[in-house]
From TrEMBL:
Species in which this protein is naturally found: Rubripirellula reticaptiva
EC number: 1.1.1.292
GO MF assignments: 1,5-anhydro-D-fructose reductase (1,5-anhydro-D-mannitol-forming) activity; nucleotide binding
Taxonomic lineage from the root: Bacteria, Pseudomonadati, Planctomycetota, Planctomycetia, Pirellulales
SUPFAM superfamilies per UniProt: Glyceraldehyde-3-phosphate dehydrogenase-like, C-terminal domain (SSF55347), NAD(P)-binding Rossmann-fold domains (SSF51735)
Gene3D superfamilies given in the database record: Dihydrodipicolinate Reductase, domain 2, NAD(P)-binding Rossmann-like Domain
Oxidoreductase as UniProt keyword: yes
Protein name from the UniProt record: 1,5-anhydro-D-fructose reductase
Keyword terms: Oxidoreductase
Span of the signal peptide: none
């Protein structure tokens, strides 16, 4: 391995990997060294268009098979944004070849597959991390710290989140997200994954005792063998009495809201996954008061806006840049952080429970 720079290889020419390409350029401790595609022409075209906007700090080699890239010994880490249904064998092959693995979300088809993927990484002594960028945002880390150490809203009782975007006709017919073989969890995997993760972060990684879920609308892409959740609602119950619910959808307008409610106030975020384009990430802490005095019944508003200085995306302190920088730090220092595989496995276990509940009619499932 080169001493100070993590050499990244990408599997596939996924749309999201263009954002990660730029993030790696800005990370300061990595560079994209290779891209593999099922088509050599596509790999080279991808490298050319990305390089024209964001050049890497060295040459980037195109490979026409994922195997060929994984076999190289001048690659330290692979980024795997292949469709979820196809990802597992490539994660395991990469780990066996000694490559550290940044794996897109949702991690896998089942939690058993996640265990196999993580075991392969552990056996090979390489880092496993999923692609949830907000785990690396200064805002989320500050909220996590406050909720754990300071009880800014008292005891947390309820977490509600909503992640949706409106997928048009062409999306519904031909995007990987509506193909059961490629993205079997549909909106639950694509968007609900973040809602579940937010809950885990807010509870300091505590697992719920039971979950339930329901597909509200199913979608089926033109080439899909089956339906996927296009609109899904899920709930979680915790031993402390805390409850959490979420809604995710490919059919509602752009919304990324989260409310964390305590017995002394609530925290509201309006952009919890992809921060609004700005140089700071904000949230509000609310502790409204109902003032009653004889004929005067006033609900008085008390809302404090809080923020951290952090560019939403595409800058050196943005969450996706922090993600790849932190990953490369683990690679370069040979210090594996076990929290990341744990987070992935817990998220997938809750997702699996929601799907089992859905398949059984929406009843509560004990985890
Ligand atoms: N963390 C985040 O913020 C984000 C994460 N994601 C996740 O990343 C993953 C990829 O999403 P997205 O970028 O939209 O995906 P794309 O459809 O743009 O890309 C998927 C890539 O996978 C490769 N591939 C291999 N086999 C197949 C196949 N049978 N069908 C289709 N593609 C195949 C293709 O590369 P090639 O043909 O070149 O080999 C293709 O470019 C998803 O799981 C998604 O949830 C997506 C967006 C944001
Ligand atoms: O992970 C993701 C982040 O947000 C997108 C929507 O805006 C998703 O579709 C994507 O897969």
């Amino acid at each position: 391995m080169s001493e100070s720079i993590c050499r990244w290889g990408f599997l596939g020419s996924a749309a999201i990997s263009r954002k990660v390409w730029k993030a790696i350029r800005y990370s300061g401790n990595g560079r994209v060294a290779a891209v593999a595609s099922r088509s050599a022409v596509r790999a080279q075209a991808y490298i050319d268009t990305c390089s024209a906007e964001v050049p890497q700090t060295g040459p980037v080699t195109a490979f026409e098979s994922y195997e060929a890239l994984i076999a190289r010994d001048d690659i330290d880490a692979v980024y795997i944004p292949l469709p979820t249904g196809l990802r597992k064998p490539w994660v395991i092959a990469a780990a066996k070849a000694g490559k550290h693995v940044l794996c897109e979300k949702p991690a896998a088809v089942h939690a058993d597959d996640v265990r196999e993927m993580i075991d392969a990484c552990q056996s090979a002594g390489v880092q496993f991390m999923d692609g949830v960028m907000f785990d690396h945002s200064a805002r989320m880390n500050e909220l996590h710290r406050q909720l754990r150490d300071e009880s800014p809203i008292g005891t947390v009782r309820r977490i509600q989140s909503h992640f949706s975007f409106p997928g048009d006709n062409s999306f519904q017919k031909s995007n990987i997200r509506t193909d059961a073989g490629l993205e079997p969890h549909g909106a639950l995997g694509d968007l609900g994954w973040y809602c579940i993760r937010l809950t885990l972060r807010a509870t300091n990684l505590e697992m719920p005792t039971s979950v339930r879920g329901q597909t509200l609308t199913a979608l089926k892409g033109a080439d899909s063998d089956g339906e996927v959740p296009g609109e899904f609602t899920g709930e979680m119950k915790f031993s402390s009495g805390l409850t959490s619910s979420f809604y995710c959808s490919f059919l509602s307008s752009n919304q990324q809201t989260a409310t964390i409610s305590g017995d002394q106030g609530y925290i509201q975020l309006n952009d919890f996954v992809l921060p609004f384009y700005s140089g700071e990430s904000s949230w509000t802490k609310n502790h409204h008061v109902l003032e009653i005095d004889n004929c005067r019944w006033n609900f008085s508003q008390h809302a404090e806006r809080k923020s951290v200085a952090e560019f939403a995306s595409g800058e050196r302190n943005s969450q996706e840049v922090n993600m790849v920088r932190r990953f490369a730090e683990a690679v370069l220092s040979k210090t594996i952080d076990p929290m990341f595989p744990e987070l992935t496995l817990k998220t997938q276990t809750i997702l699996d429970g929601c799907r089992r509940s859905d398949a059984g009619g929406g009843n509560w499932i004990d985890l």
